[in-house]
Amino acid sequence: MATHTTILPILLFFILSSSSILCSSLDQAHLMVLQTLNNVTDHASLLSFKSYITNDPHNALSGWNTSSSFCTWKGVTCNSTTQRVVAIDLSNLDLQGSITPRVGNLSFLQALYLQNNSFRGNIPSEVGNLYRLHTLNLNTNLLQGSIPSSIGLCSSLTALDLSSNRLEGVIPSQLAGLSKIRNLSVGDNHLTGTIPPSLGNLSFMENLILFKNSIRGALPSELGQLHKLLKLQVGQNNITGEIPSSIFNLSSLVELGLASNLISGSLPTNLFSTLHELNTLFVGGNALVGSIPASLSNASMLQRLDLGYNSFSGQIPHLGNLPRIQILSLQYNQLINSGRGGMDFVKSLSNSTQLQVFSVAGNRLTGMLPSSIGNLSSQLSLMVFAENELEGSIPEEIGNLNGLTLLSLEYNAFSGSFPDSIGKIPNLQQVFADGNMFDRSIPESLGNLSLLFHVSLSQNNFTGRIPSSLGNCKSLTMLDLSVNNLSGDIPKEILNIPSFAQVLNLSWNSLSGSVPAEIGTMKAISQIDLSANRLTGSIPDSIGSCDNLQYLSMRNNLLEGPIPNSQFSW
Description:
CATH superfamily of the domain at 451-570: Ribonuclease Inhibitor
Structural class: alpha/beta
Low-confidence stretches: 29-34
Helix content: 10-25%
Radius of gyration: 34 Å
Number of helices: 3
Number of strands: 39
Distance between the termini: 130 Å
Largest sheet: 21 strands, mixed
Strand content: 15-25%
CATH architecture of the domain at 451-570: Alpha-Beta Horseshoe
């Protein structure tokens, strides 16, 4: 009896152990079957993806075949344990075709990178099945149709980039279901409709990029709830109304881009105090009014500011505490600088050692440019004072601006001589000074500027001869000296510049002598205007060698003889 008592527990243990082992084996077998089925699904989905590619110029997918494991295929990443596809990166491969709907069967997919290709057609709604997906990047393709509302079901998504495609329709309100989203970019498409207020509930949002669409309506005040927002770009749309005050409470905001819309109202005085991290503010090309916020004086983090093409009025504030500013555009407003110290804003920019672009064109500025203009940043590349009411001479100190590539002074009331020091600016490429009252000779020092390609000094009172030194400007393509009081011959030197491909306009002066035969060496020139001078002699036959000439005027001179019978079509 004792023996049976001893054996029973042993038998029971054996039975239970065997049962457990059997169950475990069955579970493992079941898992292996499921894994095999899932791997077959992934394999089939990838082959379907390849079948939707119509052109693979770099043979990137040539290895996508049954002779090797799909986990080794180019651009495919698998989980090392499950052997399921977790990432596909086929970016920058110039692929053409469309996206297979079977991409939605890759149920373990976490990242899909297809940017910088030429995918066409619609984004398949099956993408909404990818609940593990955290990154979807389809930017810079040719995708059409609407944004699938099903994307809002991708609850793990943190980055969605559909920018630079041809997408149409509205921004789906279902995107508010992307509770983990940090980066949402649908810029540079053809989207219409309004911005869904529900996007304001996406509390993790850091970058919201909607620029260059046809989005209309007002900015939702709910966007002011995005307290982690760093970048808000809604430029180049049809946004109307005022900027919600809640936007100006986003203390983390680094970049605010609202340019080229229909936004009205004014900017709050304390804007740069509340948005103290702001390094970029683009609101140019709207209908904003009022004064430039006084707090601009203390915007120490600001790097890029565009307030141009609005209706801002009043004085330009002190700009002395903008140590990081690189781009400063206040152009085409109604700004003034009256009273004592009217040009102090220019002097104060001497502290902005990183300044590269400065434009105050198209305002109501008066007075003279201060000599301290020569103390501006050595990095200053573009300086624009055009279309104001500035007067007096240009300070010789302007020659200290070694980094200058463009100087725009046109349509003011500047007078006297054009500074000889301009020849000391080695990188200068474009000079615009039309429509002033300069009444001395054109400086010979312009010939020192080997990179100069555009010179426009028309509608002044320049006297003397055209500097032959301009022939040293071997990059010159455009020279307009029309409507002045220039005299003497046309310098042969400027006709021997092989790069001269656009315009030579010397009309409405008092030039004399004959038209040099060297004019025929200007084989690339498209327009020549020598009208309204005192040129004599005949039109040289060599003019027929100007193969690209589209416009020629020599009227109102003292020329005689026949029109040359040449290949030029008169």
